[in-house]
Write a structure and sequence with these properties.
The complex is a heterotrimer of chains A (343), B (233) and C (288).
Chain A: E1 3-10, H1 14-31, H2 33-36, H3 39-64, H4 73-89, H5 94-116, H6 121-140, E2 151-152, H7 155-161, H8 165-192, H9 194-204, H10 206-211, H11 216-242, E3 244-245, H12 247-250, H13 253-267, H14 273-289, H15 294-310, H16 314-322, E4 333-341
Antiparallel strand pairs in A: 1-4, 2-3
Helix pairs in contact in A: 3-8, 3-11, 3-13, 3-14, 4-5, 4-6, 4-11, 5-11, 8-9, 8-11, 13-14, 13-15, 13-16, 14-16
Chain B: E1 3-14, E2 17-28, E3 32-36, H1 43-51, E4 61-63, E5 66-67, H2 73-79, E6 81-84, H3 96-103, H4 114-120, H5 122-126, H6 137-149, E7 155-159, H7 167-175, H8 177-181, E8 186-191, H9 194-200, E9 203-208, E10 211-216, H10 223-231
Helix pairs in contact in B: 3-6
Chain C: H1 2-31, H2 38-56, H3 60-81, H4 92-113, E1 129-133, E2 136-139, H5 140-162, H6 164-174, H7 176-180, H8 186-211, H9 219-233, H10 238-258, H11 263-277
Antiparallel strand pairs in C: 1-2
Helix pairs in contact in C: 1-5, 1-8, 1-9, 1-10, 2-3, 2-4, 2-8, 2-9, 3-8, 5-6, 5-8, 9-10, 9-11, 10-11
The chains are: A mainly alpha (343), B alpha/beta (233), C mainly alpha (288).
């Protein structure tokens, strides 16, 4: 009897195993940050976390599902305002309010999707922005939430988060770390699932995937709402750290969408690794040039434009062109296990 | 006979896929040449290479004894090569007359003007303000040929002009070719219809799998030779 | 009477929104490009006029003689130098690049002119009005803007359907490869379209700068107004764009009449309502 090799579908590669090991070490370092990092460092790390989470989510939406939204600030703002409203007027514990903020964002995402899904391509993009503006202008009319000038989180609510400033900052830090890890884990798990295959199919050819029985509308809707939920969580976290919210800050297209898109494009769209690289570049540039104010933002815009033109798959794409590395394998490969006697 | 267009060892690629393998081809001035071959033999690819839609090595294509292989399509037409594309490809937002006027964008002067094209295809004058795509298939083909002529080309390349048309209409279309050549335009037609090609051409090339499989004049080629070259039997 | 007056003013403001929108519509029509920096380019034109007016001590309307060609030349260079390389099947490159451009223009204006609110001083025409009885009056400036919108749209309509350039625009938009075999250089044609669009943007920017205050951050809102007018009017329909602009202007005027804070919000909501009931706009172009 001939030896028949046994095949197995595998996604793991040597580089992904090394990546996992490095990831674990980085994770331990980050989880223990409150003990070794200063206050300013913690603040910076929290900011990095929420930008990374937003970038992963936008990447899932645009890079994998083809829903190029420039209105994700809608859900950041909704999340933030839900937290403030529930904590200040509903007496809800701010940490519990974070979870509810995601739910509220998801609920708002449904009618939003109903409207913007009528538009295609670039028009979808600007449509999402219009809806975000409606939310911004709408919240500016709610005088209980401070109208156009916004409000601060009441002192007793702030105190209810944890005993003392240090404990509060540590707690917010860990929550931020958990949220970014959860966002990445969900994106990763989704891409490895059957849904992930459907997503890739939709991005590559919508009519073809529809003819193969993929319900593109429903798949897109599910992803859109899931991303809105998670973006709402991140929004609540952002304003829990800032302790102050206003319509212009909460629904800022530059802060919560333009920079996020730049991060994804600089790092590499359609790859989980892309936003990680992008967020590192974004914050390195910011730390180096932040004193130059407007010049820094012009530089950021220019870097994004140049990368889109010269390396449309981003810096991670440049790296993988040179070396075959994959930290988060989502592609499937057929590998031959040891041959075994079938007789 | 002076060669008007020559290709030497012409190759063409779509990415990694090679579609043409060393095509040697000549059209003489005033001659009518037909290129026959089955689907996928590389006929349309060959025309796209000549017109510059697909780029090539400069020396692979010579026109009036000058290398044109690396010229972009918009420059090739100014040298005097016009194309009647497969499927006609009229501009849907343009009227019949506007479609014809687009053909003159290369700004070459000569016999062919709106007036002379309308004389060749009188029905087009009646429909001049209709959208090009509102016409019947045969009339659309007339617009496409007229549009090619408006460039006053020295060489007119016609890609599958009988495709999808009724036999009687094909006859009408082909009847125009002598009027075209008599004005000094050399014509090369790509055809799947062997009989039509043999009837109109002075010389025939048969393509098969990206190569020239047969070449000759209609009266010297036998049916068996053509079948063998066409189908690879 | 306040209501009638508000609606009349809204109709006239609609002319300005139509001017914002025609440039966007033209570029989309010719090359399927949605320019996120469109609003910022309007503001750029207004600031350019401000600099010209200050430097040469001329009337803002006279500054058009300089601002229009400069913006057109900038459009040509922008299209040939950058935007042509972003066009293709994927919508992301043009979107991202024009988004980057938007951030660059906003911050360049901020750096050059500061965040202060500005206004183009146009003298008597700013306040002059023509009484039409029963307490109603039409401002001279809104009238100039509205007439300009009609002239610009009529002019573009003429260019598109009666001239060689327009024929080339339509043919290239239909089938760029075939147009190329007729001698058409796509890069040049698209750059001409962008130049034409930015010439209109220049007119819109200067008229806006005379009518209202502006600062480097208000571009995106202008993009949204333009976008809404285009979608409400029906894609590819220039006169529809004027109708879209008027609906937007009237909706904003009604909103402002109810509560000043609702002005912009009412415009957006009118747009969303149209999107629900007529997703292809009110006057979609009938394909021939």
């Amino acid at each position: 009897m001939a030896d028949i090799p046994a095949y197995a579908v595998s996604r793991a590669t040597r580089s992904s195993r090394i990546g996992m090991a490095i990831g674990l070490i980085v994770l331990i370092i980050l989880a223990t940050a409150p003990w070794w990092a200063g206050r300013a460092d913690l603040r910076l790390l929290i900011e990095i976390f929420y930008y990374l989470a937003l970038a992963q989510l936008w990447n899932l939406l645009a890079g994998y599902t083809g829903l190029v939204s420039v209105g994700q600030q809608a859900f950041v703002g909704l999340g933030g305002y839900t937290l403030f409203a529930l904590a200040a007027f509903g007496g809800v514990n701010p940490l519990a309010a974070i979870a509810l903020a995601g739910v509220v964002a998801a609920i708002f995402a449904l009618p939003t999707a109903f409207l913007v899904f009528r538009l295609r391509g670039a028009y979808f993009a600007i449509g999402t922005w219009v809806v975000a503006e409606v939310y911004r202008l709408g919240f500016a009319q709610v005088s209980a939430l401070g109208g156009g000038s916004g409000m601060s989180l009441p002192a007793d609510v702030v105190r209810s988060i944890a005993d003392g400033r240090q404990a509060r900052e540590w707690l917010v830090y860990w929550v931020a770390l958990i949220i970014v890890l959860a966002a990445m884990a969900i994106v990763y798990a989704l891409l490895r699932s059957r849904q992930g295959l459907a997503l890739t199919a939709i991005r590559d050819s919508e009519p073809a995937s529809e003819s193969l029985g993929v319900n593109t509308y429903r798949t897109k809707l599910v992803i859109y709402i899931a991303v809105a939920f998670a973006t709402g969580l991140v929004g609540a976290l952002i304003f829990l750290q800032k302790l102050r919210i206003s319509p212009d800050a909460a629904f800022s297209v530059n802060d919560w969408t333009a920079f996020v898109i730049f991060i994804v494009v600089i790092g590499g769209i359609g790859r989980i690794e892309g936003p990680i690289i992008g967020v590192i570049v974004f914050f390195v540039l910011r730390e180096l040039f932040v004193d130059f104010g407007a010049w820094y933002l012009m530089l950021l815009g220019a870097v994004a434009v140049v990368i889109m033109l010269l390396a449309p798959r981003g810096l991670w794409g440049l790296l993988t062109d040179r070396w075959d590395i994959q930290l988060f394998p989502v592609r499937r490969a057929l590998v031959v296990k040891e041959t075994k006697d079938s007789g | 006979m002076t060669p008007l267009l020559e290709t030497r060892a012409l190759e063409a690629f779509y990415g990694d896929f090679q579609a043409l393998f060393g095509i040697d081809f000549t059209v003489g001035e005033g001659e009518t040449v037909a290129i026959i071959g089955s689907n996928g033999a590389g006929k349309s690819t060959f025309l796209k290479s000549i017109t510059g839609v697909l780029s090539n090595k400069a020396d692979a294509i010579r026109f009036k004894n000058e290398p044109i292989g690396s010229l972009a399509a918009n420059h090739v037409v100014r040298r005097g090569i016009a194309m009647v594309p497969e499927g006609r490809r009229l501009f849907p937002s343009l009227s019949v007359e506007e479609n014809l006027q687009m053909g003159a964008m290369s700004k070459r002067s000569g016999h062919w003007t709106l007036e002379t094209v309308y004389r060749l295809f009188p029905v087009l004058k009646e429909r001049r303000y209709s959208p090009g795509t509102a016409l019947s298939g045969g009339q659309q083909q007339m617009v496409a040929i007229g549009r090619g002529l408006m460039a006053n080309p020295d060489l007119l390349l016609c890609d599958e002009i009988s495709l999808g048309l009724a036999p009687i209409i094909i006859k009408d279309i082909y009847a125009a070719i002598p009027s075209i050549t008599s004005e000094g335009t050399t014509v090369a037609v790509v055809e799947q219809d062997i009989n039509q090609a043999l009837a109109v051409a002075d010389r025939v090339y048969c393509f098969q799998e990206g190569r020239v499989s047969l070449e000759g004049t209609p009266d010297t080629l036998t049916r068996e030779q053509i079948s063998a070259a066409y189908f690879g039997l | 009477m306040d209501w009638v007056n508000a609606i009349v003013q809204g109709i006239f403001v609609g002319g300005l929104y139509a001017l914002f929108a025609t440039g966007l519509s033209l570029i989309f029509g010719v090359m399927r490009l949605v320019n996120i920096a469109h609003g910022d380019l309007i503001i750029l034109a207004a600031f350019l006029s401000l600099a010209v007016v200050d430097g040469l001590n001329i009337h803002p309307l006279v500054s058009l003689v300089i601002v229009v060609p400069v913006m057109a030349a900038f459009g040509y260079a922008l299209q040939r130098g950058i935007l042509n390389f972003t066009l293709g099947k994927d919508i992301l490159p043009p979107l991202l690049v024009t988004f980057g451009l938007s951030v660059i223009i906003q911050n360049a204006l901020l750096e050059t002119f500061s965040a202060d609110s500005q206004r183009l001083q146009a003298g008597a025409i700013e306040t002059a009005s023509i009484p039409i009885g029963q307490g109603l009056a039409i401002g001279v400036l809104p009238l100039i803007i509205f007439v300009t919108a009609i002239v610009v749209i009529g002019g573009l309509q003429f260019v598109f359907y009666q001239t060689t350039l327009g024929r080339v625009f339509r043919a290239t938009s239909d089938d760029a490869v075939t147009a190329r075999t007729m001698g058409i250089d796509k890069s040049h044609v698209f750059a001409l379209a962008m130049a034409l669009a930015l010439a209109v943007v220049a007119i819109a920017g200067v008229l806006m700068g005379i009518r209202t205050n502006f600062d480097p951050a208000v571009g995106p809102a202008r993009l949204l107004f333009a976008f809404e007018a285009v979608i409400m009017g029906g894609l590819g329909n220039l006169w529809g764009t004027l109708a879209g602009g008027i609906i937007l202007g009237v909706a904003q005027a009604i909103g402002a009449q109810i509560n000043p804070g609702w002005q912009i919000l009412a415009g957006h909501i009118a747009f969303l309502i149209v999107l629900v009931i007529r997703p292809n706009g009110l006057f979609p172009r009938i394909q021939g």
